[in-house]
Design goal:
By secondary structure, this protein is mainly alpha-helical. It contains twelve helices and no strands. The chain folds into two domains: about 30 residues; about 210 residues, MetI-like (MetI-like fold), CATH 1.10.3720. It is about 75% helix and about 0% strand. Helix 1 packs antiparallel against helix 2, helix 5 packs parallel to helix 8 and helix 9 crosses helix 10. The longest helix has about 35 residues. The N terminus is likely disordered.
């Protein structure tokens, strides 16, 4: 048995062996050997001043956190016993829940109203968010001067105001009922889905867009044939998640006069019926868990179908 010659010996013997080969093959072999023996890229730590900036930012964040705790007067010594005191209070006032309070036709009617309100808000909100997201996406907007900024402004305005604040304002304008709650959730859905839709559009690959534009297609055709095929899977997941979020918000907006389960909860709170409140909260948790499981199942199967 004989030892296999090392890479250095093979490299040293290369010129002698290559004398009998054509010039093109010698060049190719030389390039291959240099590529095989090239030193791989290695990881290196950030050096000054990057490391200095990083530590300054970290220390600044910690100092701001300490100052906020001191300024707000947060007593950290009370936190260790918080869970114990909360458990004692819940056991004394809210246990056992009055399950009979939620096992009646009237309450389940409010559950159906909450589902209807969230579904209406999701459908109308998504239908409005799609064109707004198209106009707000910088890379494919039909007009960066006249449509991009107004669309961004509308999405930001809908996102900036919490759905509870929208509900209070709309209840003051329209009165009590399901309509202000549905409109408040619609505005919330426009801001939530519009932002995610526009960001997914801005993350697409530009090759398909340029190819469709090269055929002479107009802006709408570019959006339908180049943008939608790239974002349909992401948009499907975002749409289902938007309904999930709207349903969870719909269980609470009724507390401010928008009907549904929240209105039933407000009535019990005003009567100081703690065990009735516990039963309603327990039912809301169960319904939200079921909606979460349903939305996860839908995201999985619909994304697989449209992929």
């Amino acid at each position: 048995m004989h030892a296999e010659p090392s890479s250095e010996l093979r490299l040293r013997d290369l010129p002698a062996a290559s004398a009998a080969t054509p010039t093109g093959e010698v060049a190719n072999v030389g390039v291959a050997v240099r590529a095989a023996n090239a030193t791989p890229a290695t990881w290196s730590r950030f050096r000054y001043p990057q490391s200095l900036y990083k530590y300054i930012a970290l220390l600044g964040s910690l100092a701001f956190l300490a100052w906020s705790i001191e300024y707000l007067g947060i007593d950290l010594e009370r936190l260790p016993g918080l869970l114990g005191r909360m458990g004692e209070m819940l056991a004394r006032r809210y246990v056992p829940p009055n399950v009979g309070h939620v096992i009646n036709a009237e309450y389940w009617h409010t559950v159906v109203e909450t589902l209807q309100m969230s579904y209406f808000a999701t459908v109308i909100g998504l239908a409005t968010a799609v064109p707004l997201a198209w106009f707000a996406a910088w890379n494919v907007t039909p007009s960066r001067r006249f449509l991009h900024k107004p669309a961004r402004l509308i999405i930001m305005a809908c996102r900036s105001v919490h759905e509870m604040i929208w509900t209070i304002i709309l209840v003051m304008v329209l009165g009590f009922g399901m309509l202000p709650g549905a409109l408040a959730l619609t505005l919330y859905c426009i801001g939530f889905a519009g932002k995610l839709f526009s960001e997914s559009i801005e993350a697409i690959r530009p090759g398909q867009v340029e190819a469709i534009r090269a055929t002479g297609a107009n802006q709408l055709q570019v959006f339908v044939y180049a943008v939608l095929p790239q974002v349909r899977v992401a948009w499907t997941g975002i749409s289902i998640y938007s309904w999930d979020v709207c349903f969870r918000a719909a269980t609470v907006v009724g507390f401010f006069g928008a009907g549904g389960m929240g209105w039933y909860l407000r009535e019990s709170v005003q009567r100081v019926a703690s065990k009735d409140v516990a039963a309603i909260l327990l039912s809301i948790i169960i319904v939200v868990i079921l909606s979460e499981l349903l939305s996860a199942w839908l995201r999985k199967h619909i994304a697989r179908a449209v992929a």
